[in-house]
Please model this.
Amino acid sequence: MTTPRTVLVTGGNRGIGYAIAEEFLAQGHRVAVTARSGEGPAGALTVRADVTDAASVDAAFSQVEAELGPVEVVVANAGITKDTLLMRMSDEEFDSVVETNLGGAFRVVKRASKGMLKARWGRIVLISSVVGLYGSAGQVNYAASKSGLVGMARSITRELGARGITANVVAPGFIETDMTAALPEAQQAEYKKNIPAGRFASPNEVARVVTWVAGDDAGYVSGAVIPVDGGLGMGH
Model:
């Protein structure tokens, strides 16, 4: 039985973040999600936040702390893409993706660490992507931001590991979301050919790995990159 915790999932209004919030709720945790628009699943507290703005992140945490108690588990999931080939990528397209995906995780984790240090217990889960270590043409900005999370988790582990705090990376591959559903059939088939499992994952399959690594059983797992990609990345 897992101890009920106060959990915050950023970008919890759709896709993988929504599924993660749902799974934490199903396991009996107190769950809040941040969203710029839309709502998290029923039973979750939805707070407005823009992860590129430290003051906005601080206000969101203060609201969650007031309503649900100190945040014990934080899942940094909020992310954007602006895909284009290197030669065509503008500074803005590079900067905004890094600012949201990597900078956003930094601001969220920094704010969460205050309460975790006080409690001498915490779980930090950073949602990366198979692309972060495998690479992908047209995603120099996204891949750089997602691989940066690995260095972040490992440095946090060295800094805070002795205080009962773990920091891990979950790296999903192709997941059945609105984003992958919009891909042409032929392209989906091409992707599936490269995935040893021969299929995309359900968001739930990612969510359950996240709840496990955030739970009581994973207290000695830290600085790890856990792929949920059907064998696509194979340790890359």
Summary: The mean pLDDT is 96. The chain has one domain: 6-228.
